């Protein structure tokens, strides 16, 4: 992968997720205002991630110091475990991005899977041509948002209530 190609892909999985959830949150996070470390919700999600599916032969892999994926060994599946289905669309784009990124690195043919253990639900994610276009459009917008001199304005939504950035945004 060329340097130019890699720089066009430069976004973390978290940034892709935040792009869907809240573009202001994306900007704040990408400018190193990482308030999640003190968030109880984030801690619960991390605990769920660590303790779910103990019998599965999975491993976490950090690729290019950019994306961290859970691989289900022997099945060619890229997993993403989420605490809740509430932000499933953001999680779906995050998994599509992982599949897209891995395909660009020569690891095509993988399948993504979202897992919501509390609801005992799974959702398969396939990288299609439409999905690739969606990821490419999101990456372009993420780059544009990250380059803004100040965070974009946003309106309060129910997603704001449990957000680690709520006090920062809404006082």
Widest sheet, order of strands: 1-2-3-4-5
Number of helix segments?
7
Average predicted confidence as pLDDT: 85
CATH architecture: Alpha-Beta Complex
- Large-scale geometry: globular
Q: How many β-strands, per DSSP?
A: 5
Number of domains: 1
Report the CATH C-level class: Alpha Beta
Which radius of gyration do the C-alpha atoms yield? 16 Å
As residue ranges, the low-confidence spans are none
Largest sheet: 5 strands, mixed
The percent of residues in helical segments reads 40-55%
Helix/strand/pairing class, anyone?
A: alpha+beta
Give an overview in words.
By secondary structure, the protein is of the alpha+beta class. It has seven helices and five strands. The chain has one domain (3-170): Lambda Exonuclease, Chain A (Alpha-Beta Complex), CATH 3.90.320. It has helices at residues 3-8, 13-21, 23-30, 40-51, 88-104, 129-146, 166-170; strands at 58-63, 67-72, 77-81, 111-116, 121-125.
What's the structural blueprint in terms of helices and strands?
Layout: H1 3-8, H2 13-21, H3 23-30, H4 40-51, E1 58-63, E2 67-72, E3 77-81, H5 88-104, E4 111-116, E5 121-125, H6 129-146, H7 166-170
Parallel strand pairs: 3-4
Antiparallel strand pairs: 1-2, 2-3, 4-5
Notable traits:
Lambda Exonuclease, Chain A; five-stranded mixed β-sheet; globular; alpha+beta; 171 residues; single chain; 7 helices
Structure in a nutshell:
The chain is α+β, with helices and mostly antiparallel strands. It contains seven helices and five strands, in the order ααααβββαββαα. The chain starts with a helix and ends with a helix.
């Amino acid at each position: 992968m060329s340097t130019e190609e890699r720089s066009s892909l430069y976004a973390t999985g978290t940034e892709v997720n935040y792009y869907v959830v809240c573009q202001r949150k994306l900007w704040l996070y990408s400018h190193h205002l990482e308030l999640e470390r003190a968030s109880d919700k984030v801690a619960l999600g991390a605990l769920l991630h660590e303790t779910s599916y103990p019998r599965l032969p999975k491993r976490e892999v950090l690729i290019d110091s950019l994306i961290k994926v859970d691989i289900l060994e022997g099945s060619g599946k890229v997993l993403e475990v989420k605490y809740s289905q509430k932000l499933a669309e953001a999680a779906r784009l995050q998994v599509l991005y992982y599949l897209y990124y891995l395909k660009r690195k020569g690891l095509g043919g993988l399948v993504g899977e979202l897992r919501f253990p509390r609801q005992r639900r799974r959702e398969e994610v396939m990288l299609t041509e439409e999905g690739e276009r969606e990821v490419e459009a999101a990456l372009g917008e993420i780059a544009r948002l990250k380059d803004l001199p100040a965070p974009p304005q946003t309106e309060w939504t129910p997603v704001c209530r449990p957000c680690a950035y709520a006090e920062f945004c809404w006082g």
